[in-house]
Design brief:
Length: 282
């Protein structure tokens, strides 16, 4: 194994402030364990929570993670990405492992066609009260367990001017690799947290001065374009299969539905949140 920066005649004359460059032929190196078996979702959720890390994939997402102030533990990439990411690697105090594409695939368990990965320290989440104190428009998500939907919700909420996202305890991890990629890194700049006391949380929103709008197919739901709440707004949406629970729907100030053709009764949860966020945008 060779480590350290090579000179102008070597393989990577691009960055200088990275802790070290490591051309690793030994995939059993314990420093590479953060990248093992990335396709095993259950294993990764356990390992990443246990180690307090998350992974970013692709140049744009790695760049956004770094620019958002997240602290890197290490980088893993093929040689072709050293130059495009040189400006960021030059500032990052973390080792960079440089492997061939087939070695990366053997380590991670899939073809990383974007060629660049990074492991970051998982940040501490703010409290729900801290978020609600500063926010004007928030999205509240109950039991959405699909990482793709979570990533899409973050991307839409950020793009349409919402200030934060609050999640039930069972929601998928926004910092799971797939969710980060689908969100295009928006998980790094829109504040979010989990609400542990999910049953008692509706009252918390009312106490914080929020008008709550529940996306639900309840019989008394009204078209969302007929509701024009003022002040602070919380948009509530539920799981892909069962929708928002009765407890949350009953305790909302308004129960709303997105008007659509009669033969179509609902939208995918991420699409529904996007439409509702557009309707409720500031």
């Amino acid at each position: 194994m060779d480590s350290g920066r090579q000179d102008a005649q070597g393989s990577w004359p691009y960055a200088s402030a990275v802790a070290e460059f490591i051309e690793a032929a030994d995939l059993g190196d314990p420093r590479l364990r953060d990248y093992v078996d990335l396709r095993d979702v259950h294993l990764r959720k356990l390992l990443e929570t246990e180690r307090g890390i998350f992974l970013a994939e692709g140049e744009k997402v790695v760049r956004r993670a770094l620019e958002s102030g997240n602290r890197p533990r290490s980088f893993l990439m093929s040689k072709r990405w050293l130059e495009p990411l040189a400006d960021l690697l030059d500032k990052a105090d973390a080792p960079c492992f440089v492997l061939a594409d087939d070695q990366i695939e053997a380590l991670t368990g899939f073809h990383v066609h974007r060629g660049a990965l990074a492991a970051f320290e998982r940040p501490e989440l703010p409290t729900a009260k801290d978020i609600l104190r500063d926010a004007k428009r928030v999205v509240v998500i109950e039991d959405v367990m699909d990482h793709t939907n979570i990533g899409a919700i973050f991307r839409s909420a950020a793009a349409l001017g919402f200030d934060a996202i609050l999640l039930s305890p069972r929601c998928a991890d926004p910092l799971y690799r797939r969710a980060i990629k689908v969100s295009m890194g928006s998980v790094f700049w829109i504040p979010y947290t989990r609400i542990e006391d999910w049953h008692g949380a509706p009252q918390m929103f009312h106490n914080a001065g929020f008008t709550t709008l529940a996306l639900t197919l309840a019989e008394d739901s009204v078209p969302i374009d007929r509701v024009s709440p003022e002040g602070k707004i919380a948009l509530l949406a539920g799981s892909e299969g069962h929708g928002l629970s009765q407890h949350w729907a009953r305790n909302a100030d308004h129960r709303v539905v997105i008007p659509m053709r009669e033969e179509i009764d609902s939208l995918n949860v991420a699409a529904a949140v996007a439409v509702a966020c557009w309707q409720l945008r500031a």
